């Protein structure tokens, strides 16, 4: 189905309800849908399960936490080892007000891929013998110990790409891909913020990174300046 | 000279020593913190390809140009690209990491045990820590070098019999490069290969909880 | 008119009837053989995207231009591209198939059982058959239409109580379109929805091994 | 390590031994390394385990079978349901002279991906309740039956791409990708036949489909005319 183009990021979020599981693409400053994140903040959606690589490292996701919109997070980095300057998320986490499932980054990516690709689980050596193995099935095969990891899906995915065509094909620039292409496959409703929307056919078939089949909604936005200062 | 002995190596010198370990043409992932410094000391014509797990193969040094939010390494720092660089998504990046296609990973460490277990992501008493790509890198890289300070700020050994902090991966470390020593992890335990100028094997061993076998040809770290 | 009754639908007419089932804007995979013909009968402005499991989304009809070995569908036939097409590798293609991102798959069939099991890849007595993408498509597509002849060349029923041939997937078929009938697979069994012109429900049922419930509004296939 | 450029496809196969497990990329006519296949035929390597999507459907692989170089095959289509015109492979298969493991195409791709990506196995619904399930572990999860499928690797992979740079980065054209990118990740020695070798840096970083880390050897060849007549 052809993607629907929305006028504003706020309108593009129509229908997201309290309690939603929301995946957000991006890695620190790269490929992060900051306009959609701020629209989700303005929307005031509560009790969100946030599925994102990082929270509070040069992204706008901590602003959602500021308003206590996030109840549970699944992430690969969200809490610093040192607490010199706490994010809202970290403060709430240390006070036990928000739940966090920390996932190794490769396992995080692969679980989302499994969720989008009809894979019911996969075996990885990553995390075997660590806290990550707690509660998971462990199998020995080929002389090694493997964890059985399960797929991860969401109700909504918020993505950032560089360009889209009207059909919904996406292309990314530089290191802007990261988790965006895989999250596009693993949510019931997929919304992408892009810098430019072009006519269908204007992105060469070989240059399409995310095929149109995965994209439900598009909104054109100027990218927000986002930078992590390293702390 | 600190209270415990001759001067220790600076972070930059530790990074220089690590850089010597990188074979020409190898594919290398540098973790955040001290390992990031290694990039500045790589031999220019060795054809080493740096991989950033956020989806770059072939990045170069830090960029001084206008900040581009889409061109960062896994530590969020702006980087330049070398000719022949490529971009890919996170599933492809960790397929590369997990599948054994990274020749050397250099990670920071909190503790390394005598059998090569690594703990580098969490200090429980501080109530935090994050995993990021460390567990996949420690498990998947063909060779793992840990670059860290030999002791904590309070003087406690970081090279220990058994890690007290939460593990990153078991039996994963091949080489430890600290501000005092180069220690190799072998089947039998830990071998002290090199020591910082002015230090003796005995002085290094005194700051190391795990037993060290002093190599017959132990020598001073040369840079 | 053959020995057993009025004329049956041609392969092209079966394909036309299948094409009517494809919702506007849907993503459709057409299997080799008869299903391939469906592509020629799709409404031009319905925005249907054809997926070829060898790695194309958005191909159009067959190409009459010079053969390009790199631009074929999964049956090896040269195809054209529509605006908005994209290419991807086989892992991405089957992530799309397995992950439920194909709205409708149209596959050929050897046998379909009353509970919607499909056998379409092997005739054991002929000592062969290949699976290709059929098992993934039958398992992963949101809706599965089987397009086949109602009976074998020797007159045996292809819509059976239980498949005798090796299965492609269990309980996967939603609709069967043959040269005699349109049959829907529902929880209770098979419903005869449409029949070829000149045929009666009884005559179709006589060539069907599995029990058919005749729909109250059963009608002639209209094209 | 920078890829090594060979002068001829025959030289590029140096070191392949009898008994090798050989993956070959391509889908019928698309992205098929015909020059390398014919070089393998000339080389006379025997007792090959051939891992390829198709054998004898517009590819040159059946010529390897003609010389009885293939002992075992893992493929998704290799034997026609009807035997009107048999390939050498089919004839040998029907006489029981060659072993065939038929794999569903999505499972075939995913097993190779697992082999290259450090995944020890994965769960798929594909094949459950069919002959494909024979001998495999079956698990029930989320109300469905899943097969545990295992990774697939090879000693050598023979690939075809459109362009390479001297470092070994590959780009494909049109539908020429198919199994080539994933096979590049899953063999100990990876050899690619390309139509053009350009200077390192001449392929834009966003246009690289297979990063150089995966490619050991390159050889430039004019593509051979290959076409399946549909029978």
> Which stretches of chain B are low in confidence, meaning pLDDT under 50 for 5 or more residues running?
none
State the strand order across the main sheet of chain B. 4-3-2-1-5-8-10-11-12-13
Number of strands of chain A: 12
Number of strands of chain B: 13
Rough shape of chain A?
globular
Mean pLDDT metric of chain B? 94
Give the low-pLDDT segments of chain A.
none
What oligomerization state is this entry in? heterotetramer
Helix amount of chain A: 10-25%
Shape of chain B: globular
Per DSSP, what share of the residues of chain B sits in E-state strands of 2 or more residues?
Answer: 25-35%
What is the rounded distance between the termini of chain B? 20 Å
Which percent range describes the beta-strand content of chain A? 25-35%
Report the C-alpha radius of gyration of chain A, rounded.
18 Å
Alpha-beta classification of chain A: alpha/beta
Describe this structure in words.
- The complex is a heterotetramer, with 2 copies of chain A (231 residues) and 2 copies of chain B (223 residues).
- Chain A has 231 residues and is of the alpha/beta class.
- The model of chain A has no long low-confidence stretch (mean pLDDT 95).
- Chain A has helices at residues 9-12, 34-43, 61-66, 88-94, 105-117, 180-183; strands at 4-6, 21-24, 48-52, 70-75, 99-102, 119-124, 138-141, 144-149, 154-165, 170-171, 187-198, 217-220.
- In chain A, the strands form 2 sheets. In chain A, strands 1, 2, 3, 4, 5, 9, 10, 11 and 12 form a 9-stranded mixed β-sheet that branches.
- Chain A contains 6 helices and 12 strands.
- Chain A is 19% helix and 29% strand.
- Chain B contains 5 helices and 13 strands.
- In chain B, the strands form 2 sheets. In chain B, strands 4-3-2-1-5-8-10-11-12-13 form a 10-stranded mixed β-sheet. In chain B, strands 7-6-9 form a 3-stranded mixed β-sheet, with no helix packed on it.
- The two termini of chain B are 20 Å apart.
- The chains are: A alpha/beta (231), B alpha/beta (223).
- Chains C and D meet through helix 3 and helix 4 of C and helix 4, helix 5 and helix 6 of D.
- Strand 6 (119-124) of chain A pairs antiparallel with strand 6 of chain D.
């Amino acid at each position: 189905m052809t993607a629907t183009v929305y006028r504003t990021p706020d309108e593009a979020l129509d229908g997201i309800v309290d309690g939603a599981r929301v995946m957000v693409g991006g890695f620190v400053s790269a490929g992060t849908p900051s306009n959609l994140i701020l629209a989700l903040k303005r929307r005031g959606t509560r009790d969100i399960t946030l599925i994102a690589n990082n929270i509070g490292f040069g992204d706008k996701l901590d602003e959602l936490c500021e308003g206590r919109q996030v109840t549970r997070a699944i992430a690969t980095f969200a809490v610093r080892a040192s607490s010199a300057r706490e994010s809202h998320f970290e403060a709430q986490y240390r006070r036990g007000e928000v739940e966090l499932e920390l996932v190794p980054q490769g396992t995080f990516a692969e679980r989302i891929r499994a969720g989008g690709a009809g894979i019911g689980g996969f075996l990885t050596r990553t995390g075997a013998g660590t806290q990550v193995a707690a509660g998971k099935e462990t199998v020995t095969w080929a002389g090694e110990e493997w964890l059985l990891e399960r797929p991860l899906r969401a109700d909504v995915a918020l993505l950032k790409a560089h360009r889209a065509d009207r059909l919904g094909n996406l292309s990314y620039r530089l290191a802007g891909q990261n988790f965006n292409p895989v999250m596009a496959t693993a949510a019931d409703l997929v919304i992408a913020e892009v810098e430019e929307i072009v006519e269908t056919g204007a992105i060469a078939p070989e240059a399409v990174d995310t095929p149109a089949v995965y994209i439900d909604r598009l909104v054109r936005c100027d990218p927000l300046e986002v930078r992590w200062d390293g702390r | 000279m600190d209270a415990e002995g001759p001067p220790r190596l600076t972070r930059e010198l530790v990074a220089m020593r690590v850089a010597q370990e990188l074979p020409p043409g190898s594919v290398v992932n540098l973790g955040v913190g001290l390992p990031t410094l290694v990039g500045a000391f790589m031999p220019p014509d060795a054809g080493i390809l740096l991989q950033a797990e956020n989806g770059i193969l072939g990045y170069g040094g830090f960029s001084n140009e206008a900040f581009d939010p889409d061109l960062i390494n896994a530590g969020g720092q702006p980087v330049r690209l070398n000719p022949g660089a490529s971009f890919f998504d996170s599933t492809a990046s960790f397929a590369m990491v997990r599948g054994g296609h990274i020749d050397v990973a250099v990670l920071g460490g909190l503790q390394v045990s005598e059998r090569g277990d690594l703990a580098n992501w969490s200090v429980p008493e501080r109530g935090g820590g994050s995993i990021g790509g460390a567990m996949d890198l420690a498990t998947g890289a063909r060779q793992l070098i840990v670059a860290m300070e030999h002791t904590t700020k309070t003087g406690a050994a970081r090279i220990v019999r058994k890690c007290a902090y939460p593990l990153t991966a078991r039996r994963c470390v091949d080489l430890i490069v600290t501000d005092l020593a180069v220690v190799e992890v072998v089947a039998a335990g830990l071998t002290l290969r090199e020591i910082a100028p002015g230090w003796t094997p005995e002085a290094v061993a005194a700051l190391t909880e795990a037993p060290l076998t002093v190599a017959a040809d132990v020598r001073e770290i040369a840079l």
